[in-house]
Design brief:
This protein is an all-alpha fold. It has 10 helices and no strands.
């Protein structure tokens, strides 16, 4: 039963992270501009945020879920504004031929920024709650150890998807010259701005 719960968590985490949204685009951009280590800190931030929302959905933390539901507009507004700023900065940035070596503080900044940016999408919480209810995990969630394994699986699955995405991006990076990297950078910048704008508009209506 516990192994099944872990495998279910991995499948849920992977499948919910798989659609390439703003966080996926951000992972791609940081892989191109800053290398695999920067991608790793970004991936860990996104996977940890997914795990937190999975934890809330699994253990039914009512206070947190109600707070998120009541402040959806502000979550989307803040997250959208941050994405627009990040997208503009990405568009204007130049990608060096060789990825720079980042300091510990810079890696920590990548982790924290990605963690909070992922949390600003409240639909993630509702998606986890819906999936948990729909794939026969209700009985499993009644046992604390089994629920913990399920949530741990979500973290592993989410990390596995972002790891796959960034690995493919890093391989692709080796085939691009400087102009090609800058073009991809501008495209990802526009995509992040579009995602940010969409988040704000969806919060208004």
């Amino acid at each position: 039963m516990m192994i099944i719960a872990l495998l279910k968590g991995i499948a849920i985490g992977f499948s919910l992270a798989a659609p390439v949204g703003p966080i996926g685009v951000l992972c791609i951009r940081r892989t191109l501009a800053e290398g695999r280590r920067s991608a790793l800190s970004t991936m860990l931030g996104a996977a940890t945020a997914d795990m937190v929302y999975g934890l809330v959905a699994a253990f039914g933390v009512t206070l947190v879920s109600e707070f998120v539901a009541q402040h959806t507009f502000w979550f989307r507004l803040i997250g959208g504004a941050v994405m627009i700023i990040l997208g503009v900065r990405t568009y204007r940035a130049h990608i060096p031929p060789a990825p720079p070596r980042l300091s510990f503080n810079e890696h920590a900044g990548n982790f924290v920024s990605t963690f909070f940016l992922t949390l600003t999408n409240p639909l993630t919480l509702f998606a986890f709650a819906a999936v948990f209810a729909g794939v026969g995990t209700v009985e499993e969630l009644s046992a604390t150890k089994t629920a913990a394994l399920l949530v741990g699986g979500v973290f592993i699955g989410s990390l596995a998807w972002f790891g796959t995405l960034t690995t493919l991006t890093y391989i692709f990076r080796n085939f691009l010259r400087t102009k090609g990297l800058d073009l991809v950078n501008r495209i990802t910048g526009w995509l992040i701005v579009i995602f940010g704008t969409a988040a704000i508009v969806s919060g208004l209506f």
